[in-house]
Amino acid sequence: MVTATDQTTEESRRELPAALPAATIDPDESADLPAERYFNRELSWLDFNSRVLALAEDTSLPLLERAKFLAIFASNLDEFFMVRVAGLKRRDDTGLSVRSADGRSPREQLQMIAARTQKIVDRHARVYLESVQPELDAAGVHIADWDDLSSSQQDRLREYFHNELFPILTPLAVDPAHPFPYISGLSLNLAVTVRDEGSEGGEHFARVKVPNNINRFIRVDKLRSAGERTGSDDGHQPAIFLPLEKLIAANLEFLFPGMHVVEHHVFRVTRNADFEVDEDRDEDLLQALERELARRRFGSPVRLEVGDDMTEHMLELLLRELDVNPADVIQVPGLLDLTALFEIYGIDRPQLKERPFVPKTHPAFAEGETPKSIFATLQEGDVLVHHPYDSFSTSVQRFIEQAAADPHVLAIKQTLYRTSGDSPIVDALIDAAAAGKQVVALVELKARFDEQANIKWARKLEQSGVHVVYGLVGLKTHCKTCLVVRREGSAIRRYCHIGTGNYNPKTARLYEDVGLFTAAPELGADLTDLFNTLTGYSRKHEYRNLLVAPHGIRTGIIERIEAEVAAHRAGDPTARIQLKANALVDEQVIDALYRASQAGVPVDIFVRGICALRPGVPGLSENITVRSILGEFLEHSRIIVFGSSQEYWIGSADMMHRNLDRRVEVMVQVRDHRLTADLQEIFDSAFDPRTRCWELQPDGTWTASPAAGVEVRDHQRRLMTRSRRDSDSGAAT
């Protein structure tokens, strides 16, 4: 976690448009709200991951999609422990008595998490062992045990073991001359007990690390002889996989010759991946971050996963040597680390997957089959793109690539939070700098788990002549903005992109996001001011058409919520609040929504993950509905609608403390009625009574909706159909 510095400048109130009634924000009003009005955010996150698991249980989905959701669940849980549980343990260990919004201490939360996690892990394992794996077997995709294989298959695997695997394995003994080895986070390991053959002597412990630089699953049916495999998978022959740890376990005798293997068990350690960089003390942020990343490898254990067949003796040894609390042990039936099912998902079995969706070029950016200049398009008006339904490569990526190649473009200014390993965005910025354009890239080095990649990009950009900055001290720069300055005759014109998602072509095919393209002069001026703040010493907090955190988003949102209350009390039937976000945790925003509900304002919330707001409580939130939709794409856009003023805002900020207080975030108002109609359609589809979703209940449970027997619509599939229709219509014109 990065330490945020104190903000010494007083938050200034953004002047509201005349169309909005004046609102007075009084934080003391929250004192009248009930104390138990928030759900615990950590348990709410576990509920979210349970909804991911429910997709793996859904037999109406193609089989490999269900396997993929098992892998996503496991990956999510890893990160939860590395960050959220690690943070709670640090606060508990240091005696910080900071309580959660629902009044629980760090220790109380850790106890609840431990109990809930064991139950959800058991359920996860059952879905794999009792449903997905048997159905994969029936479909000709076998994840085998050693004893399931024929003798000829075992012979080929032993040859593979000796020629390709044995040379890279390193068994590590533990005795007075060999201390207990360091166990890296998330690595898979075999704990082995051996003793001398023909001896009554004592037993000895050894650890064998399962290599993580080769595939977890060995394709048995493709093995011929050492290093030789058959051709590509034709999709018809049975595919047989053996987990790597099972091959090692079956051949332990070769790692310990002359010894008798008494027992072996698989285990996995999760380590604290949270860390702090003191930006006030460290003069070189890049070097300081590299130093802390090196320390991350040695974070303290926060979870120990073991097979449910592990003996008490072996478990006690691991607890002692790893210094792990028994409460941090998770027993896993079956295979550990099902993130490896991503490998199984990658096989060529299209009949077991959803039909691939191919994004279409937004009609505004094409004339038939011919790409259209994005600059010419934006001279005609604003464009709203909705990924992945609208292609990222032919909109956002093409915008930056055209800017890099256009001789009339003078400057490109870009924020980069996360991008792909092979980044055409970075390549375009490098090309622009080589062409003599002024190029500024704000690379956020502190993007969690992408720090190393961003350090690499920062260095590459700097070496290519791009002006690279790292943002503001104490704040992560999380906004998604690009500004292109272009000479057109005797005038200078600015073109902007402001989005909700990262400049990452790979995730743009998987994440649902929206973005605004515009050449509106006032927005160009706003982005110019913002970049001057990010790169220089400007302390500007007021903008014409933007809300900017950490000074303006929470205040701006609450003012508009209060304006909806005032409009409703004045008899305006259009007063309504609709909010779409990844998470809703911020207490001030939640309390403002409670007050709106108490005043009779309808509130629709479309949240993917955490929701600390308690809906449907009489006298508090009976006018609030909370829905969650998970599916083929990860719902990621942030959109807020205020009905009486017909204001539509999109941006990068979730309703969380970190976004509103410790990050630079941007929200922009979409004004064009053609575009706001597209945004409204997202909410209309999500809150259609026939749309498949989960609804949050007052007691914190999530119930599947609609009820059995009701016609069901899929929100994302509906938008895919619309995308194809709109694209075909645009091509026809």
UniProtKB/TrEMBL annotation:
An intermediate of this reaction is the autophosphorylated ppk in which a phosphate is covalently linked to a histidine residue through a N-P bond. The keyword ATP-binding applies. Its EC number is 2.7.4.1. One of its GO terms (cellular component) is polyphosphate kinase complex. The keyword Transport does not apply. Transmembrane segments: none annotated. It catalyses: [phosphate](n) + ATP = [phosphate](n+1) + ADP. Its cofactor is Mg(2+). Mg(2+) binds at residues 418, 448. Catalyzes the reversible transfer of the terminal phosphate of ATP to form a long-chain polyphosphate (polyP). This is Polyphosphate kinase. It comes from Gordonia hirsuta DSM 44140 = NBRC 16056. The gene is ppk.
